[in-house]
Write a structure and sequence with these properties.
Layout (H helix, E strand, L loop, with lengths): L10 H6 L23 H7 L17 H12 L5 E6 L5 E3 L2 E2 L6 H7 L10 E6 L11 E7 L8 H5 L5 H4 L5 H8 L2 E4 L3 H6 L8 E4 L5 H11 L4 H15 L5 H23 L1 H6 L3 H16 L2 E2 L4 E4 L20 E6 L1 E2 L8 E6 L6 H20 L6 H18 L7 H4 L44 E4 L2 E4 L13 E4 L2 E6 L2 E4 L8 H12 L1
Parallel strand pairs: 1-7, 5-6
Antiparallel strand pairs: 1-4, 2-3, 4-5, 8-11, 9-10, 10-12, 13-16, 14-15, 16-17
Helix pairs in contact: 11-13, 14-15
The structure holds glycine (GLY) and manganese (II) ion (2 copies).
Protein name: Xaa-Pro aminopeptidase
InterPro entries: Aminopep_P_N, Creatin/AminoP/Spt16_N, Creatinase/aminopeptidase-like, Pept_M24, Peptidase_M24B_aminopep-P_CS, X-Pro_dipept-like
EC number: 3.4.11.9
Length: 518
C-alpha cells in the first residue's frame, strides 16, 4: 500500500498535470504509481458526506499530576531561558516507509504522552517572572502540535503520514490539552513563539538536540550564537538527571513493564520445543517474545538478545538466526516496553533441556552470587559504582578458585590490572526507565559516582562469557555464556528486586521450567 499523490491544493490544475514526462524531477517520481482520481469532482466527493465524530470524550491522564512537578523541577534550573523539547519526527526506514514513531524520552517524561504520540509536537517552557509560571514556577508550558486536519482538507485523504484515511484520526488541540493538562497551540505558531524576545530581549533559547532536525534548525537560525551549544548540553544533562529518581507513577509503570516481561519469558519457555524443532530456533524465541510485547505492551524496549550456546558469549547477539540445540544454555535478554514507554530489561540464562549440566551450573551459580553481592550493595547512601565493585569481587574470586586468573583475585581487582574483566567486559548496572539505558547524559558525579537514593531504578546484570576459542580457559568452559539481569528499585531501607518473580536460583529455574513444560 502506497500513498497516491493527489495535487489537492489545486485540484482543477491537477487534472491537467502531466505525469511521467522525461523532464519530471526525481523527487516527483514517487507519484508515478498513483491511481487515485485527481479531478475536482473526486476531491469534492471524498471530502464531503461524513457524519459527526462519535469518539468518547478525552479525560485528563493520571500522569498529568506528575508531569507538572517534573516540569517545575526543570524550570528551577533554567530561569530566563526558553526550553525547547521536541517529540521528534518520523525516521525513514525504506524509501517512503517509516519506522514506527517513538517520541524522545525527555518529551515523554515532561508531557506524559506515550505510544505513537505525537509526531512533530514540541513542548516549550516559556520563561516568565519567577513564581508567576505554572505551579508557581519560572516557566509556562505550551505544547505545539499539528492537530487533526478537517475532513475538508487534502490531508484528510491524501497524506500517508498524517492523514486520517491513512493513519486514523489524530487528536485535536483540545484533546491533548485535556489529557496532558498542558496548554496547546498549533505548530504553525512555533517559530514566532520561539523567537520572541530572544537576543536583545534577554531570552536565552535552548533545545534538546538530535530529536528533531527541523526544530533544531529553526532554533539555530533564531539564536545564531556560538555559546549556545554548550548550554544545550546543560539542558540535556539536566533532563537526564531529572529522571534518575523515579516518581510513584514511574515506579508503577516499571512494575507493569517487569510483570509483563516475566509473562513473556514464560511464553518463551513454552515455545522451546518449537524453537528446538526449527532451523533458526533463536528467531522462534525472539518472535515469541516480540509477539507478546506487541500484544501486551507497545513494543520491546530494545532488540531482544536470543542467544543459544556459544552465541551467548556475544554480548549484544541480536542476529538471533541460529539454532537452539539440546544441551545448550539459552541466554534471553528481553524487555517489554509498556504503552507509557517505560521498559524492563531482564536476562535469564536457561538450560534448553530444563536441567543445567554440572559445569553450566557452576558458572551460573558464580554469576548469581555476583548478582546477589550487587543487590547487597544497592542501598541508599551507597554509590552507584559500589554495586559493580561488589559483583566484581565475587567474579574475580570464582575465577581464582577455578584457576583461571594469572594473578590472585586481589591483584586482578587492582584498577591497573582487571584480568577478570576478560570474561565480563561490560558494566554491572545502568539506570532504566523510558530509555533502556536511561539518564545517559547525566554527569559522572550523578551517575557512576552518584549516591543511591530511594526511587532509583537500575539493572544488576553480571555475567561470565567464555568464548569457544578462548585458549586461556579449560575446554569444559568454552562456549558457555551466562548473564543474570534483574531490575532493582532502591527503597528507603534497601532495595526491591522488581523482577524477583522470575526464578533466578538454578533449582528454582529448573522447577519453573518443568512446571511450564508439563
Ligand atoms: N539489554 C541491554 C542491556 O542489558 O543493557
Ligand atoms: Mn541491561
Ligand atoms: Mn539486558
Amino acid at each position: 500500500m502506497t500513498q497516491d499523490d493527489v495535487t489537492p491544493q489545486d485540484p482543477a490544475a491537477a487534472d491537467e498535470t502531466p505525469l511521467g514526462t522525461d523532464g519530471q524531477p526525481l523527487a516527483d517520481r514517487g507519484a508515478n504509481r498513483s491511481q487515485l482520481g485527481r479531478t475536482q469532482n473526486f476531491v469534492e466527493y471524498v471530502t464531503s458526506g461524513w457524519g459527526p465524530r462519535t469518539s468518547a470524550p478525552v479525560e485528563r491522564a493520571a500522569v498529568a499530576d506528575f508531569t507538572a512537578a517534573r516540569r517545575s523541577a526543570l524550570s528551577a534550573h533554567f530561569p530566563g531561558a526558553r526550553l525547547v523539547v521536541p517529540a521528534g519526527t518520523f525516521k525513514v526506514r525504506s524509501n517512503d516507509t517509516d519506522y514506527r514513531f517513538r517520541p524522545h524520552a525527555a518529551f515523554v517524561h515532561l508531557t506524559g504522552l506515550g505510544m505513537e504520540q505525537e509526531p512533530d509536537a514540541v513542548l516549550v517552557l516559556h520563561p516568565v517572572e519567577d513564581g508567576t509560571g505554572d505551579d508557581g514556577s519560572a516557566h509556562t508550558a505550551v505544547l505545539y502540535m499539528s492537530p487533526m486536519a478537517g475532513r475538508d482538507t487534502p490531508e484528510f485523504f491524501s497524506d500517508a503520514r498524517y492523514g486520517e484515511f491513512w493513519v486514523g484520526a489524530r487528536p485535536t488541540l483540545e484533546d491533548v490539552a485535556t489529557s496532558t493538562g498542558i496548554r496547546t497551540a498549533h505548530l504553525d505558531d512555533l517559530r514566532d513563539a520561539l523567537a520572541k524576545d530572544v537576543g536583545t530581549g534577554g531570552v536565552e533559547l535552548l533545545v534538546v538536540r538530535e530529536a528533531d532536525p527541523t526544530v533544531e534548525a529553526v532554533v539555530e537560525e533564531i539564536r545564531a550564537t556560538e555559546e549556545a551549544g554548550e548550554r544545550d548540553d546543560r539542558l540535556a544533562e539536566a533532563l537526564s538527571e531529572l529522571r534518575l529518581v523515579k516518581d510513584a507513577y514511574e515506579v508503577e509503570q516499571m512494575r507493569e513493564a517487569v510483570t509483563t516481561t516475566i509473562d513473556g519469558f514464560a511464553k518463551v519457555v513454552r515455545a522451546l520445543p518449537a524453537a528446538l524443532a526449527h532451523r533458526r530456533g533463536e528467531r522462534v524465541v525472539e518472535g515469541t517474545f516480540l509477539g507478546h510485547a506487541r500484544q501486551e505492551g507497545n513494543y520491546v524496549g530494545y532488540e531482544t538478545i536470543a542467544a543459544a550456546g556459544e552465541h551467548a558469549t556475544t554480548l549484544h547477539w541480536t542476529d538471533n538466526d541460529g539454532a537452539v540445540r539440546p544441551g545448550q544454555l539459552l541466554l534471553l535478554d528481553a524487555g517489554v516496553e509498556v504503552d507509557s514507554l517505560y521498559t524492563a530489561d531482564v536476562t535469564r540464562t536457561l538450560p534448553v533441556d530444563g536441567t543445567f549440566t554440572e559445569v553450566q551450573r557452576r558458572v551460573y551459580q558464580a554469576v548469581l552470587d555476583a548478582a546477589d553481592a550487587g543487590f547487597a550493595a544497592a542501598v541508599p547512601g551507597a554509590r552507584f559504582r559500589d554495586v559493580h565493585e561488589a559483583a566484581m569481587q565475587v567474579i574475580a574470586a570464582r575465577l581464582e578458585e577455578w584457576g583461571l586468573l594469572p594473578v590472585s583475585a586481589a591483584e586482578a581487582l587492582l584498577p591497573q590490572n582487571q584480568h577478570h574483566r576478560r570474561w565480563m567486559v561490560h558494566g554491572t548496572s545502568h539506570h532504566l526507565g523510558i530509555d533502556v539505558h536511561d539518564c545517559a547524559q547525566a554527569r559522572a558525579q550523578m551517575y557512576l559516582d552518584g549516591v543511591l537514593e530511594p526511587g532509583m531504578v537500575f539493572t544488576i546484570e553480571p555475567g561470565l562469557y567464555f568464548k569457544a576459542d578462548d585458549l586461556l580457559v579449560p575446554e569444559e568452559y568454552r562456549g558457555i555464556g551466562v548473564r543474570i539481569e534483574d531490575d532493582v528499585l532502591v527503597t528507603a531501607d534497601g532495595n526491591e528486586n522488581l523482577s524477583a518473580a522470575l526464578p533466578r536460583d538454578p533449582d528454582a529455574v529448573e522447577a519453573w521450567m518443568a512446571s511450564l513444560r508439563g
